[in-house]
Specification:
The chain is of the alpha/beta class and 388 residues long. The protein folds into 2 domains: 239 residues, FAD/NAD(P)-binding domain, CATH 3.50.50.60; 146 residues, D-Amino Acid Oxidase, subunit A, domain 2 (D-Amino Acid Oxidase, Chain A, domain 2). It contains 8 helices and 20 strands. A hairpin with a 5-residue loop joins strand 15 and strand 16. The protein binds flavin-adenine dinucleotide.
């Protein structure tokens, strides 16, 4: 493993996924220097190379809708800014409800979304085929649809960011494990790498599903927890499906890529923690095949090409941890994105960079601040739309 080229950096980012690389990008664009990004694995080895590519703005919390909306704008500009086509296609997100209660939940989300100026639609069952044909709608009572949501290919987003940050002078070290920080008088003084220490006053914890482990290594009890989620891709078939489809009852989600493959998953409960690694299970293949072919019968004869898994990084209230950790000056949390970090990364990481630079942020610390779970438990807003 190569050691870093310098002894001191302005900021060291731990994790070269979408969150770490976007954070480094915002810092580099702000003229901060020098910035180091370390990742103990390979590019896209974490959730950023294992996700469904969904990008939606339909959330229960207005602040999350705003972050998602700003991120959609960023992904629309991505090709021009980073020189890589991420195939961002705004084919919409279609949510399906199978009970009056589920429909009521979707309506609550829609109220928030509309208040933020986005035009979502409530659909009756008979209107749904206009937005997604080929679905077996027995049991579906209605849904909601937002056209400007969409899907993208995660890999070129990572490649574009990786090349761009390096061209801006950011040093990215792959295969470099961060084992902790050095601190004195409650302030970060440096980062420990397997090759030795590096001096810095700012460390960003963008280690995704492993960020709670890294917080612990730095002496900070985490409030986020990793959970494993499985996903698969089928053989390609002639394009027929524009939106990402999400069913509330079981968390089934799927979209069709521009190559024709169906990519999707559904919520199975696995014990929390990263210890078992990232295998796929026969239980998932059975459950997913059953759910998918029940809703889209034409997929019944289609072969599954690949199945894999990765970690969501969940917080108790479903909102990410963004900003300086009040327990350690110079330690910035950029994690807790659940299963939605790709779609929130461009806007959220701009706020992470602002925090590092000591600039004011429009994010409410009661919603996103890493210190919000410290102290006695109290009633707080919850982002319940943890779907798709
Ligand atoms: C099955 C699945 C489907 C998903 N679908 C979607 C979706 O449709 N849309 C969406 O927006 N999001 C989705 N997500 C979530 C999304 O992928 C993540 O929220 C996002 O990629 C997190 O990015 P990250 O950069 O924080 O973490 P990661 O991409 O996981 O990167 C973290 C990096 O940190 C490195 N690391 C960890 N510990 C250390 C250490 N000690 N030292 C050095 N490096 C370290 C790891 O090697 C890793 O590369 C999905 C996730 C999964 C698993």
């Amino acid at each position: 493993m190569m050691p870093p080229s310098r002894e001191r950096y302005h900021t060291v980012v731990v994790g070269a996924g979408i969150v770490g690389l976007f954070t480094a990008y915002h810092l580099a664009r702000a003229g901060v220097g020098p910035v180091l990004v370390v990742d103990r694995g390979f590019l896209s080895g974490g959730a950023s190379g294992r996700n469904g590519g969904g990008v939606r703005q339909q959330w229960e919390t207005a602040a999350t809708v705003r972050l998602a909306r700003e991120s959609v704008d960023a992904y629309r500009r991505f090709g021009g800014e980073f020189g890589y086509n991420i195939w961002f296609r705004q084919g919409g997100y279609l949510f399906l409800a199978e009970s009056p209660n589920e429909l009521e939940r979707l309506r609550r989300v829609r109220t928030v979304v509309e208040r933020e100026g986005l035009r979502s639609r409530e659909l009756t069952r008979s209107e749904i085929p206009r937005y997604a044909n080929g679905l077996e709608l027995d049991g579906v009572v209605g849904g909601t649809f937002l056209q400007s949501d969409g899907t993208l290919y995660p890999f070129p987003a990572i490649w574009g960011l990786y090349e761009t940050v390096r061209s801006l002078g950011v040093e990215v070290l792959l295969g470099a494990e961060a084992t902790g920080v050095s601190a004195s008088q409650g302030k970060v003084r440096g980062l420990h790498l397997a090759t030795g220490p590096v001096a810095t006053d700012a460390v960003v914890n963008a280690a995704g599903g492993w960020s709670s482990e890294f917080s612990r290594r730095c002496g900070l009890a985490p409030s986020n927890t990793p959970t494993r989620h499985e996903i698969l891709a089928t053989e390609p078939l002639k394009p027929f499906l524009d939106p990402m489809v999400v069913r509330l009852s079981d968390g089934l989600y799927f979209s069709q890529t521009m190559r024709g493959e169906i990519v999707g998953g559904l919520t199975l409960s696995h014990p929390p923690g990263t210890a078992p690694g990232m295998p796929s299970s026969a239980r998932f293949l059975r459950a997913m095949s059953r759910a998918l072919t029940q809703l889209v019968p034409r997929l019944a004869t289609l072969g599954i090409l690949r199945a894999w898994s990765g970690f969501y990084d969940d917080t108790p209230d479903g909102l990410p941890l963004i900003g300086e950790d009040p327990r350690l000056i110079g330690f910035f949390q950029a994690n807790g994105f659940g299963g939605h970090g790709f779609m929130l990364a461009p806007a959220s990481t701009r706020r992470v960079a602002q925090a590092v630079l000591g600039q004011p942020s429009d994010l409410d610390p009661a919603l996103f601040g890493p210190g919000r779970f410290l102290g006695p438990p109290r009633e707080r807003p919850v982002e319940g739309a943890q779907l798709g």
